[in-house]
């Protein structure tokens, strides 16, 4: 039995519907874990971003940026922290754990420092 995810090679109208049907077929072939795993990964990124953004907001300005602002700052921080950590130290953001939250927090602090160094209005100031 072929265990690859079916893809849609046809373009045009209905491409999104065909893609959705391909993912439904993939879930039925590979089991529900394929879609559930991706969804859990997205939720983990959002939670890590929320926590890291809130911590960075507290450390840098004494207050957070609201839920959406914290998520944005934290996810960008996780990307930046993951890049810096893997480049210089071999560390990665690997999921919802203390190390990932710490790395995302450090990246969010660096991100906020970069934003504060840019003159003019600050996008994440309250």
How would you describe what is shown here?
With 126 residues, the chain is an all-alpha fold. The protein folds into two domains: 1-31; 36-117, no CATH class. It is 70% helix and 0% strand. It contains four helices and no strands.
Beta-strand share of residues? under 5%
Number of domains: 2
- What structural class should be given to the helix and strand makeup? mainly alpha
Number of helices: 4
Largest sheet: none
- N-to-C CA distance: 56 Å
Q: Spans of 5+ residues with little confidence (pLDDT < 50)?
A: 4-8
- Tell me the series of helices and strands, N- to C-terminal: HHHH
The tally of strands reads 0
- The whole-angstrom Rg is 19 Å
Q: Report mean pLDDT, rounded to a whole number.
A: 74
* Helix coverage percent: 55-70%
Q: What best-fitting shape do the alpha-carbon axes yield? A: globular
Characterize this entry briefly.
With 126 residues, the chain is mainly alpha-helical. It has helices at 15-30, 33-61, 66-88, 98-117. It folds into two domains: 1-31; 36-117, no CATH class.
Looking at this protein, list some descriptive labels.
single chain, 126 residues, mainly alpha, globular
